[in-house]
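Newbie here. two chains, one complex. Structure please?
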Amino acid sequence: MRLRSGAVLRGVLPVVLVSLAACHTAVLSPVGPVGEANRIVLLDSLMIMLAIVVPTIVAILAFAYWFRASNTRARYLPDWDYSGQLELIVWSIPALVVFFLGGIAWISSHLLDPAEPLKSKAEPVEIQVVSLDWKWLFIYPHQSVASINRLVVPTGVPLDLRITSASVFNVFFVPRLGSMIYAMYGMTTRLHLQADLPGVYPGLSAHFSGAGFPGMSFDVHAVSAEEFTQWAAATRVTGPVLDEAAYRKLLRQTQNVSPYTYRSVQTGLFDDIVEQRLPPGEGPSTARSAASGSAVMLAGGRH
Amino acid sequence: MLGKLSWQAVPFDQPIALAAGAFVVLVIVGALVWVAAKGYIPYLWREWITSVDHKRIGIMYCLLAAVMLVRGFIDALMMRSQQALAFHAAGYLPPEHYNQIFSAHGTIMIFFMAMPFVIGLMNFAMPLQLGVRDVAFPTLNSVSFWLTAAGALLVNLSLVVGEFARTGWLPYPPLSELTYSPGVGVDYYLWAIQISGVGTLMTGINMVTTVLKIRAPGMSYMRMPIFCWTTLASNLVIVAAFPILTATLAMLLLDRYVGFHFFTNEAGGNAMMFQNLIWAWGHPEVYILVLPAFGVFSEVVSTFSGKPLFDRRSMIVATLGICILSLCVWLHHFFTMGAGGDVNAVFGIASMIIAVPTGVKIYNWLFTMYGGRVRFSSAMLWSIGFMVTFVIGGMTGVLLASPVADFVLHNSLFLVAHFHNVIIGGVVFGVFAGYTYWFPKAFGFVLDERLGKAAFWCWFVGFYVTFVPLYVVGLEGMTRRMQRFDRPEWYPWMLVAEVGVLTILCGIVLQIAQLWVSIRQRAKRRDLTGDPWDGRSLEWSTTSPPPVFNFAVLPVVTSDEPYWSIKQEARARRHLVTAEPDYAPIEMPRNSPTGFVTAFFAVVTGFSLIWHIWWLVILGLIGAYVTFVAFAWRDHTEFEIPAEEVARIDRANRAARAAALAGEPVR
């Protein structure tokens, strides 16, 4: 028996350890200052709570075990139901924990307000993000190019993101860069992020948005500043133009769209979307056909 | 003639949905035919369907909840299986079906499993604990139940006729607006919740009135059992929060039906306002569910530790603190809206403060066990399992209440794991503890303990195996509601979670087996004394099951634990303390089909509204109004139980208790 469990341990443990080591839990291995701050707040809060949660769980199990009915050595205090000192401790412990955590929450909420620009000597890169059914549009106003489902950014430079939606709610989220934020129709949210290490980081919509939702993933390519400039220059010479007509095509629902780029973008397109000078997403094309379908059925019924 | 309804509404092209629907229809028709063939219909009509007895209504609530638990769990099983199969693949559920399933899972589990279960337990136990004969408004109670059942029927009807919402259990606009969800799914959701929501609001009014106005002589507020306090707190929150739900959904209905623009993208609608309003109800809802569960644990831990609850006063203060704070924290559901540091921090800290009274409760249960003689019956196992699990769920909840941590965890599977941690670990374990604890009181025989404990261990282990992986993938950035995914690091955890959900399935199968075996062996499992657990509050002083009038004479309460003090005195003297009282005739409310008939018309109205069958809407509304008028003009509201009958029942109870007392070893 002993031997068998040992064998199981020897067999299973390495697999578990390897898989644990292999999984770089995205949120806990950030590549930028925002994600790093998220991680610190998360872990600090967790540690403070574990300091009290673990002893509590141990006490629950220990008390239940020791005071089991069959244990004749345990004291039986059938009428003991109050102790002022204990009450004081019982209220103080959670209150103190919340005091600490509340302090962390207050300070970090202000330091890490997504709308606040990051402190940096480098000039931030402005990017306008539009969530569509079901793809992401990234507009680079200064470079005057745009990209679908692929976000190319320079490393070590703050990203100044303005985010909106062209139809339903979505949430812009790149786990390894940190904080997420809503994309809402007719509204702009601000988010400041930064990637310090070059690499490809998966991004996704963190808010269910309909049938094509699982395909609303995109890749963030963090590249050096020179590569970014090269990419923008290369993008400016190929691909279609994003004007109003092209944008209206984007409003149609499509799924699992492969990344591509636009060589130029109509000036002020993002503001036109936010200010609702352009219509919202069309919704399912079956909407009209289904309605007319039932109308046909009705007409059929009247014959 | 039939609005949007046509043969297209039946999903002939979706084999899974069709088979499931056909199975449900067959089971229901089969059950009805069996009941009719056995000649049970008059009995069911007389004793159950038209009953206004709070105990019968409570039992029917729990039965509805148990059936819906199975339905909601099948949805969960399908979702977990889809995600276990959908790595770089389509899985077996297409998006339109998968999206309906997770929407139905949440809707059913919250509105038609958890709510009816806690309301059922409150209905059953609270008047007994208060030492009274019924709730304040017995017929209204029946109407409430049948409206809840009507809502559940509509949700399940969507399986066969049409479709259910594909928007999640809270239908956020603009996705739930006509532009993006043109089908009947969202309408099914809205009308089902509106109808059952009215029922819940009336329950809230009924229970609050009962606790405030109808108590046994001497039952002061401070002497009320903690379960009655949590019932009061929970129902106060219902009264405060459910109108918000009804109003919010009414606005969405106006958008969808008559072209209003509360939440639309066009014409100045603001979809964010829906989120704001729905969570102003939605967060209190969590406490509506968990407060009664806290009450159950208080009763169970105290009874099975053989001790009074540690510091009742601070427990009551903590309960009322949670009751008030629960209404002040809803914004933490959308920290990622971008509200700014001040707003986020205020709501984050407010949410954390709830952890203080909740923590106090945990410690009070802990010190209730201290110095006790803990009996590990299955009700107690659920309670200890709850304490351990809930502490972890509370911790991850406080973590999510920190806005900056929420910025990377919002909507992730970490969040999903957190709220299942508190809802399964808190509410579900709580209702199972209550079910095991009060089952002998309701039916007169105890449940099989061996199967009950086995079910507990399956649920307990299965819970961790399912949801710890979800915590991990949440940290890996996996968001909820994904019909498929292509990230290899998430995949192994999805397989582990599948093993967990299958373990929970074993738990549910064992619970069904437990019920089956216990019913078969009921003769030898009889609870003759009415007090199988050596209980402390008044429900254990009457017979199991209690007579329709609960107590032959209303008990006079002189202490915090009325039945315990009577029992201890009797044990000291070795005979019953009280002399035989003077029995008087008792007046009880007459049964009424009002609830059932109202619910029938509610289903007709709801169904025809969903399918735009306007003439039937009018007929349904007229029917409901006529029912109300007929009830309002009734002449005979009560019937009398003669004193001899009361005396006969109570003498048998006293004899059984005297015999049990004589049989006890001298302490």
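Moderator note: Chain A has a mean pLDDT of 85. Helices of chain A lie at 2-22, 33-66, 84-111, 225-235, 244-250, 269-274, 286-302. Thread marked as resolved.
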